[in-house]
């Protein structure tokens, strides 16, 4: 399958990141008037870098000025490889070091150093800059990354850098497109004639045009009306891609940067998070118990407090510290998510880490809490099994043992607990996943009923097809069949309905439909073509197909052929009269004598009886069945 990657440009202000992005992509990512005037990047800029049959790569140009550190964190949090730009005429600067620390805290392990503006200095000076960078990178995750010498104006090293990026990413795994869709929103805007658009990097899963979504943490329901990837219309966007999504039913004022667009409600919305934190190497000020902090997670920026359980302050880095963040606003988070902590005043990055448990509770100060957090950090066997099933939705026991490194006996014992569900004798899922699938089926059916109130329901095969990109088909069928048995859904042949739904004419057209039926009934057996009744009723033409099908399904009308329809009462009356007045076998003439109809109506009526299996034709006669 094709793989999708986003790479980032990071580094000190005026070290040539935007110019380097333009040289690589032929796109100027500085769009704002203020950015042009001040020659710095304020908002995140994006550009397509490369696409072939195997991979697609886009670039995010991250602002480098200290004031815009929050945008830098939002941009870097969703990327797969970082280009660290260091200007040959300045070397390592304060924000270069801060960016390196942030990249480390965010778990970015893939990188390339681009020494920029090499035409401004001689070869000897460039060598000194490279040695300085190597010294700075010692002990960091970027210690062994490759170097490329570049000059964006003359084009030196640009093609070499581009090829190195492509080669590096072709050897990397892409993000997981199997899980539930999640996109932290970093831009919200409106497009004239289209409405509200959000933009961000797809962290995981995939989104399709027309898909039902929710904006968390507020739970606002919406739909992906249109998608764009690299300013080009797309039917779907996958993990690792930059995507712009046109949302229906919401205004720009309903959404804020930092909120998250998801396909499932089963992401945790939280204010209290158990975390593992590392502090920067040279803290300028002591980090005190319950000190105010600014937490950057995904694209959210939230004030809160840091709570220690084994100390009252921290003056230097001591490796990973287990503690808790208590935030002032809700955020969307899951185990393993990365975050950055900043001091609000004086502003500085103080540390970063990862989420152990997004649903933390209030704990007592002391070693016992640290021991509990330590166990939670390692993850219980149950946690590991739940994580594996969350990713793949359905697994066999042998597949779970392979993914969790647990022994088969332990796996089988844990799978007996109430959080897990056996689909058959071999495969398992989570109760939460079963509930999520059932909820999505209900949402899709409800949406279908709202849009098609006169139809029997959604076609089962089409529903399974629509959901199989997100869930295995056999899982959806299992959940669907179980829900039908429990009467959560109703099945009418090939059609599915939500409990309590019945096909009906919309209230806005009920009176005109009643008038149509009254006119049809008044004309008895000698009716006009149905289209004439429809036109006289003044019902919109685009409803005709659904209305005819509804009236037929409910046996309110009966089509003799494609042109003539009888009211259902008259059709049943005609059958009753004919059956009462003829023998087991009868001819057309006998039927005409009973009903007094011309061949114009009689022949279609008798053929309809054949079609319904009420009679069987034998040469010139018909036999009642």
What does this structure look like?
With 625 residues, the protein is α+β, with helices and mostly antiparallel strands. 34% of the residues lie in helices and 29% in strands. It is built from 19 helices and 35 strands. The strands form nine sheets. Strands 7, 8, 9, 11, 12, 13, 15 and 16 form an eight-stranded antiparallel sheet that branches. A hairpin with a 5-residue loop joins strand 31 (557-559) and strand 32. Helix 11 (431-451) packs across helix 13 and helix 14 crosses helix 15 (530-537). The longest helix is centred in the last third of the chain and has 21 residues, at 431-451. The radius of gyration is 33 Å and the shape is elongated. It starts with a strand and ends with a strand. The relative contact order is 0.06. Mean pLDDT is 87; it is low at 30-36 and 38-43. One of its GO terms (molecular function) is translation elongation factor activity. Residues 2-174 form the Tr-type G domain. It is found in: Cytoplasm.
Question: How is the topology of this model organized?
Answer:
Elements: E1 3-11, H1 17-25, H2 33-38, E2 45-51, E3 55-61, H3 69-76, E4 81-87, H4 94-105, E5 111-116, H5 123-137, E6 147-149, H6 158-170, E7 182-184, E8 187-191, E9 195-201, E10 206-208, E11 212-216, E12 220-229, E13 232-234, E14 236-238, E15 242-248, E16 260-262, E17 268-279, E18 287-288, E19 292-297, E20 300-307, E21 313-314, E22 321-333, E23 338-343, E24 348-357, H7 367-378, H8 381-392, E25 395-396, H9 397-404, H10 408-414, E26 420-422, E27 427-430, H11 431-451, E28 458-459, H12 460-467, H13 473-485, E29 489-492, E30 495-498, H14 507-522, H15 530-537, H16 544-553, E31 557-559, E32 565-567, H17 568-581, E33 585-587, H18 588-595, H19 599-611, E34 615-618, E35 621-624
Parallel strand pairs: 1-3, 1-4, 4-5, 5-6
Antiparallel strand pairs: 2-3, 7-16, 8-9, 9-15, 10-14, 11-12, 11-16, 12-13, 12-15, 17-22, 17-24, 18-21, 19-20, 19-23, 20-22, 23-24, 25-27, 26-27, 28-30, 29-30, 31-32, 33-35, 34-35
Helix pairs in contact: 11-13, 14-15
């Amino acid at each position: 399958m094709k793989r999708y990657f986003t790479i980032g440009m990071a580094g000190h202000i005026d070290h040539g990141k935007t110019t380097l992005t333009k040289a690589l992509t032929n796109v100027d990512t500085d769009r704002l008037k203020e950015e042009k005037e001040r020659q710095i990047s304020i908002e995140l800029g994006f550009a397509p870098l490369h696409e072939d049959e195997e991979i697609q790569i886009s670039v995010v140009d991250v602002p480098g000025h200290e004031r815009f550190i929050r945008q830098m964190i939002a941009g870097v949090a969703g990327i797969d490889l970082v280009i660290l730009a260091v200007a040959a005429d300045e070397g390592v600067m304060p924000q270069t070091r801060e960016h390196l620390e942030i990249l480390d805290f965010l778990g970015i392990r893939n990188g390339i150093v681009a020494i920029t503006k090499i035409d401004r200095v001689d070869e000897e000076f460039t060598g000194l800059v490279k040695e300085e960078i190597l010294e700075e990178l010692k002990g960091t995750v970027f210690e062994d990354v490759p170097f490329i010498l570049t000059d964006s104006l003359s084009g030196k090293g640009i093609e070499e850098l581009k090829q190195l990026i492509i080669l590096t990413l072709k050897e990397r795994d892409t993000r997981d497109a199997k899980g539930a869709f999640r996109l932290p929103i970093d831009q919200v805007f409106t497009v004239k004639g289209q409405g509200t658009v959000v933009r961000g990097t797809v962290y995981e899963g995939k989104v399709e045009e027309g898909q039902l979504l929710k904006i968390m943490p507020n739970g606002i329901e919406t739909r992906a009306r249109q998608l764009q990837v690299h300013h080009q219309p797309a039917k779907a966007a996958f993990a690792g891609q930059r995507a712009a999504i046109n949302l229906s039913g919401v205004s720009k004022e309903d959404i804020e940067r930092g909120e998250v667009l998801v396909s499932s409600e089963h992401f945790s919305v939280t204010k209290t998070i158990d975390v593992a934190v590392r502090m920067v190497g040279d803290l300028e000020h002591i980090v005190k118990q319950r000190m105010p902090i600014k937490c950057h997670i995904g694209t959210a920026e939230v004030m809160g407090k840091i709570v220690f359980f084994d100390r009252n302050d921290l003056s230097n880095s001591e490796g990973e510290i287990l503690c808790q963040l208590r935030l002032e606003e809700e955020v969307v988070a899951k185990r393993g998510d990365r975050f950055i902590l900043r001091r609000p005043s004086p502003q500085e990055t103080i540390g970063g880490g990862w989420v152990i448990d997004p649903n933390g509770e209030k704990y007592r100060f002391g070693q016992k809490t640290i021991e509990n957090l330590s166990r939670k950090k390692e993850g219980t066997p149950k946690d590991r099994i739940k994580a594996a099933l969350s990713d793949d939705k359905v697994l066999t026991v042998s597949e779970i043992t392979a993914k969790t490194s647990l022994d088969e006996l332990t796996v089988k014992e844990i799978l007996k607990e109430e959080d897990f569900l056996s689909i058959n004798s071999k495969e398992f899922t989570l109760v939460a996943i079963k509930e999520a699938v059932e909820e999505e089926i209900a949402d899709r059916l409800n949406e279908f009923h709202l849009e098609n109130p006169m139809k029997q329901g959604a076609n089962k095969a089409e529903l399974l097809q629509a959901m199989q990109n997100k869930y295995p088909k056999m899982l959806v069928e299992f959940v669907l069949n179980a829900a039908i048995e429990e009467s959560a859904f109703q099945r009418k042949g090939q059609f599915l309905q939500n409990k309590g739904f019945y096909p009906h004419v919309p209230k806005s057209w009920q009176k005109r439909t009643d008038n149509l039926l009254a006119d049809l009934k008044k004309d008895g057996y000698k009716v006009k073509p149905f289209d004439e009744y429809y036109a006289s009723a003044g019902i919109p033409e685009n409803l005709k197909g659904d209305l005819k099908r509804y009236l037929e399904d409910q046996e309110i009308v009966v089509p003799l052929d494609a042109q003539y329809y009888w009211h259902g009462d008259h059709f049943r009356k005609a059958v009753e009269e004919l059956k009462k007045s003829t023998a087991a076998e009868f001819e057309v003439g006998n039927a005409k004598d009973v009903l007094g109809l011309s061949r114009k109506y009689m022949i279609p009526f008798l053929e309809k009886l054949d079609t319904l299996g009420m009679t069987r034709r034998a040469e010139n006669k018909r036999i009642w069945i």
